[in-house]
Design goal:
The complex is a heterodimer of chains A (about 300) and B (about 200). Chain A is α+β, with helices and mostly antiparallel strands and about 300 residues long. Chain A has eleven helices and 13 strands. The chains are: A alpha+beta (about 300), B alpha+beta (about 200). The interface of A and B includes residues 3, 31, 42 and 45 of A. Bound molecules: flavin-adenine dinucleotide and FE2/S2 (inorganic) cluster (2 copies). Flavin-adenine dinucleotide sits at the interface of chains A and B.
Chain lengths: ~300, ~200
């Protein structure tokens, strides 16, 4: 095994071009488990820790450019206002020790259907900035997950950053597990209200071969909110609308039975989480509206 | 490969390190510092917790080469680390202190059973003393990781709520104590730290 330690992004791209089988290692919280248990013996490890820019972020006008290696603990601490869904999801990852090392780049690299960043990224709207010596491209998050633990990266590409839409409305993240810490999701649900475009986006984790959006549920809800004038009136959402949204979200799930839960439990739980998170976000949208109108 | 890094305030060099090796392995097997425990090697138990540039991490999940040029504090150096922090007004990252714990001293470290009731003569960090006083140690396998994690939390958050303590220690498993005494120990350490700060 060789340990490659590029000191700059350009060096990292050159190393990945020269050795496309090299395994990047950022926080190591996925890679080292595989090496410790002999599940993986890569010829080359490509350490990204020396590339300082990967641990930085920039808050722009509409998006946050999040460096691939920014650890979850930093997202929780510094980006709660801009990326509330991702900050909540980050807080559910493993433990403080793991959150101090692991980040979104590694979560995307592993592309596990259970990765907690994914539902939040899908709901917020994001693009993955992938780069190789051949050039740079932006992969829409909806096109990023291509199969169970597969993603759209080419062998010579690295993730440089993720461009995530800044929240323009309330966001929530909900995860089912046996503990509040150190739990891989049985299933998870992320939701983001986008009052500016009068849309709602969702993300489902651990209930299909890849992280997915519940598009039928989103479309139904957007239409129902629009027709009922809910965005302006900020009325409580009719229970039948919330129920239909939950049913469609559960219908989007395509889960399996495994050690963490059964398919039918997961489908059921996705529906429950969809209804609850819609309730929470809508309540806070209504609250914000009352606030600005001075009604308190 | 060779890895150069700082352990407990002193520069160290580890040779013949395999490229896939963990920082935990290097500490235990190459530097002779078995304080950090190896229980799961998959980030689940926290018994291997060390501070890497001040940040608590599972050393079983840090590749040895990733520690190159960086500062590591293990449980063996915790007493000195805490002492320096107290002397230097909170800064004990090693960057501002020059003393540190020599590898020999670190290797020789023991809780000195004869003194452990009172802590007299034993070089213990306040959090270590609190663990002894509160009866938070049974088999002791989880203790080093808990100490490093708890010490870091108390540095960051001198008056933690119970929820803060639970959260800070949520990555550390203990199979023996049922956690109550561990919570007691951290509350005790926090209370003593507060007394000191008030100059009582
Ligand atoms: C005990 C434990 C509990 C966990 N719990 C959770 C949990 O609750 N939720 C969750 O989502 N995850 C969990 N994980 C998994 C892991 O922590 C996350 O997937 C984390 O986001 C990985 O980030 P990392 O930087 O450590 O990745 P690494 O292990 O460094 O890398 C992961 C993968 O991504 C690739 N990669 C990393 N950076 C890049 C890049 N810039 N470009 C291209 N490829 C890259 C690597 O080659 C590798 O294939 C847990 C892991 C452990 C050990
Ligand atoms: S040995 Fe590292 S977390 Fe268990
Ligand atoms: S005292 Fe035995 S594992 Fe904690």
């Amino acid at each position: 095994m060789d340990f490659l330690r590029p000191a700059s992004w350009e060096e990292a791209l050159a190393a990945k071009a020269e050795h496309p089988t090299a395994v990047p290692i950022a926080g190591g919280t996925d890679v080292m488990v595989e090496i410790n248990f002999d599940h993986r013996r890569p010829e080359y490890l490509l350490d990204l820790n020396r590339i300082g820019e990967l641990s930085q972020w920039e808050v722009g006008e509409d998006t946050v450019r999040l460096g691939a290696s920014v650890p979850y603990s930093q997202i929780m601490e510094h980006l709660r206002a801009e990326l509330p869904g991702l900050a909540l999801a980050s807080h559910t990852v493993a433990s403080p020790q793991i959150r101090n090392r692991g980040g979104v780049g590694g979560n995307l690299g592993t592309a596990s259907p259970a990765g907690d960043a994914h539902p939040a990224l899908l709901a917020a709207g994001a693009e993955v900035e992938a780069e190789s010596v051949r050039g740079s491209r932006r992969i829409p998050i909806d096109d990023f997950y291509t199969g169970v633990k597969r993603n759209a990266l080419a062998p010579d590409e690295l993730i440089r950053a993720v461009h995530i839409k800044k929240a323009d409305g309330p966001q929530q993240y909900s995860k089912v597990g046996t503990r509040n810490a150190m739990v891989i999701a049985v299933c998870a649900f992320g939701i983001a209200l986008h009052p500016e475009t009068r849309t709602v986006r969702t993300g489902i984790g651990s209930a299909a071969p890849t992280p997915i959006r519940a598009t039928a549920a989103e479309e139904f809800l957007a239409a129902a909110l629009d027709e009922g004038g809910f965005w302006d009136s900020r009325k409580i959402i009719t229970p039948s609308v919330a129920k239909q949204f939950a049913d469609l979200a559960a219908g989007a799930a395509n889960p399996i039975d495994d050690v963490r839960g059964t398919a039918s439990y997961r489908r059921h739980a996705v529906g429950i989480m969809a209804r609850r998170t819609l309730g929470w976000t809508w309540e806070s949208y209504r609250g914000a509206g009352r606030g600005t109108e001075g009604v308190a | 490969m060779r890895v150069n890094f700082t352990v407990n305030g002193r520069p160290q060099e580890a040779d013949d390190v395999w490229e896939g090796e963990s920082l935990l392995y290097v500490l235990r097997e190459r530097l002779g510092l078995p304080g950090s425990k190896n229980a799961c090697e998959q980030g689940e138990c926290g018994s291997c917790t060390v501070r890497l540039d001040g940040v608590p991490v599972c050393s079983c999940l840090v590749a040895a080469g990733q520690a190159e040029g960086r500062e590591v504090v293990t449980v063996e150096g915790l007493a000195d680390f805490a002492k320096q922090r107290a002397e230097h007004g909170g800064c004990a990252t090693g960057a501002c202190g020059t003393e540190g714990t020599s590898l020999q001293d670190a290797r020789r470290w023991s809780a000195r059973p004869q003194d452990s009731q009172t802590g007299e003569g034993g070089e213990l960090a306040p959090v270590q003393q609190a663990f002894i006083d509160a009866g938070a140690v049974q088999c002791g396998f989880c203790t080093p990781g808990l100490l490093v994690a708890a010490d870091e939390m108390l540095e960051r958050n001198p008056s933690p709520t119970d929820a803060d303590i639970r959260e800070a220690l949520s990555g550390n498993l203990c199979r023996c104590t049922g956690y109550e005494k561990i919570l007691d120990a951290v509350r005790l350490a926090a209370a003593r730290q507060a007394e000191l700060a008030e100059g009582v």
